[in-house]
Amino acid sequence: MGNRANSTNVTETDSVWEPYYDAYQKAVVQDMWVISCITLLHLLVFAILVRMEISAPILKKKKKIFSSINSLLLSIILLHFLANMLNYAYSSSLSSDPIYIVTYIIVAWFFTCFQECAMTFYAYRRGIAVIEAIFPSSRIFMIGCLLFIAFGTVCQFVWVSLANISFYLPYLTDYNAFFNKAFNAHSVALSIAIFCFDTGICGVYLYYLRVAEEQEIGEIEKLKVLSKYGLLSCCCLWLWHGSLTLFLYSSYAETPPFPLWIYILSQNMAELIPLLYVTVQLVMKWNLLVEERTRIQLMQKRMDRAKTTSFSTCKTIVKSKSF
């Protein structure tokens, strides 16, 4: 995600932003190394789990490599990496060409906005089974919420693009302050909307775990796994949206509104928490595979027991008839 605080020309606020800019550049380099290493690990684990998923015995229909859940999770991993790679390339560049700078920021923001969309759609896709178990007719409402958030994310991308373009185009300079305020207000409103969406899903998870506490068989165990890891996922999303909103508000302010340590902490959290989120999803995927395999084995044992009982009954009947 581009940081407009370090994309300024020589202005009156340069001396104020200078220590923030220096700390920002150092943090970007450090975070990029962490993100690169962990992303490679995530991709490796993801490939192994997908391989296990499609080769495992199944109960119903054949599983696809690029299912909606797998595609969304892979998109989250790649979009986060690409956004931070562009951010790193931009912050490390010595070019002062406005077109070059704005292009880097806008493309990085494109990846960040679609990553945000992918995470929201993934949360819905993962949680819909639990949600419909509690509220069977909630799908249309949930889809409406998703479309609203997707539209809000597109608008956020438009505002941030205008804010950065207007900073360099002379005939839009007078509107720069307006675009910055609009972007900040929209980002806060969108974060609140996503927070409410995630909180609603979190409430459903908590309710399901409470009502399903005494049940331990069949699909219920699968929904319990989804609910437990769904709660962890919601916590990650809350932290990410909060830190991202705080970082953006700081970056697009005329003067730094927070101390340097808060600014850098919000930057680090905004860049690294998605890695924690993906880790939670991969661990959940592993536990779902284990649960499904256990369920299949249990069903197979029941079928074998039923066959044995049926055979014994038939044998008894035949013997009784022979007498």
UniProtKB/TrEMBL annotation:
Top-rank taxon, per record: Eukaryota
Q: Does the keyword Transferase apply?
A: no
Give the transmembrane region(s): 32-50, 71-90, 102-124, 145-168, 188-208, 229-252
Q: Which UniProt keywords apply?
A: Membrane, Transmembrane, Transmembrane helix
- The protein depicted here goes by the name G-protein coupled receptors family 1 profile domain-containing protein
